[in-house]
Design a protein that fits this description.
Structural class: mainly alpha
CATH architecture of the largest domain: Orthogonal Bundle
Number of domains: 2
Order of helices and strands: HHHHHHHH
Distance between the termini: 50 Å
Largest sheet: none
Number of strands: 0
CATH superfamily of the largest domain: RNA polymerase sigma factor, region 2, helix turn helix motif
C-alpha cells in the first residue's frame, strides 16, 4: 500500500511539472484524478445547493493558478483537499442567490411544504461545521474524508499520506472529540440563548 501511495505521489509530481510546462493534458489528468475528492468535500459542506459544480470549477481554477507555487511539502491530494474545503466554506458563508422565476415555482400541498425542515438542516450543517472547526486538523480532515467524502480507510490514508492504523485512530479520536464539542456547544447555546424550540 505504501509502495502504491509512493507511486501515486511520483506521478502527481510528474503531472505538476508537466502542467507547469504548459501541458493541458497533464492538468486534465490532475482534475480527473482528484475530481472525486473535490466533489465529496464541496458536496459535504454545501449539501444539495445548486452551485456545487460552480464551486468545484473555482477550486480547480485555484489549483491551476496555484501550481506554480506548490512546493510539494504536502501531498498534492491533501493540498487540493484544503483548497476545496476553504472554497466551499467561503461559499457556505454567503447567502445562496436565488434566480428562480415564478414560472419555476412548484406549489406543494401543505403536507409536502416543510420550509422548517430545510432551515433545520441548514442550522445543523452550520453547527457541525463550527464544531469540526474546533477539532485538531488531522482529526477533522480524517472525519470529513470518511463521512462527507465517503472514502475508504485506504483512500484516506493515501490522501493524507498516513498509515491506515493512524487514520483509524484519528477517526476514532475525532468522533469522541466531536461528540464532546457538540455537547458543550449545545449546553452553551441552551444557556446562552435560551430554548429556541
Amino acid at each position: 500500500m505504501h509502495m502504491e501511495a509512493q507511486g501515486h505521489d511520483d506521478s502527481d509530481s510528474r503531472l505538476v511539472e508537466e502542467t507547469r510546462a504548459g501541458s493541458e493534458r497533464a492538468f486534465r489528468e490532475i482534475v480527473e484524478r482528484h475530481h472525486a475528492i473535490v466533489f465529496a468535500v464541496v458536496r459535504g459542506i454545501l449539501g444539495d445547493r445548486s452551485d456545487v459544480e460552480d464551486v468545484m470549477q473555482e477550486v480547480f481554477i485555484k489549483v491551476y493558478k496555484g501550481l506554480g507555487g506548490f512546493r510539494g511539502d504536502a501531498k498534492l491530494s491533501s493540498w487540493i483537499y484544503q483548497i476545496a474545503r476553504n472554497e466551499a466554506l467561503n461559499k457556505a458563508r454567503k447567502p445562496l442567490a436565488t434566480e428562480t422565476s415564478l414560472d419555476d415555482v412548484v406549489i406543494e400541498s401543505p403536507e409536502e411544504s416543510r420550509p422548517d425542515a430545510e432551515y433545520r438542516r441548514k442550522i445543523e450543517r452550520e453547527h457541525l461545521e463550527r464544531c469540526l472547526a474546533e477539532l485538531h486538523d488531522d482529526f477533522r480532515t480524517a472525519l470529513e474524508l470518511r463521512y462527507m467524502g465517503e472514502m475508504s480507510y485506504e483512500e484516506i490514508a493515501e490522501t493524507m499520506g498516513l498509515p491506515i492504523g493512524t487514520v483509524k485512530t484519528y477517526i476514532h479520536r475525532g468522533k469522541i472529540e466531536l461528540r464532546r464539542v457538540m455537547s458543550r456547544r449545545r449546553f452553551m447555546d441552551s444557556y446562552g440563548e435560551g430554548d429556541r424550540s
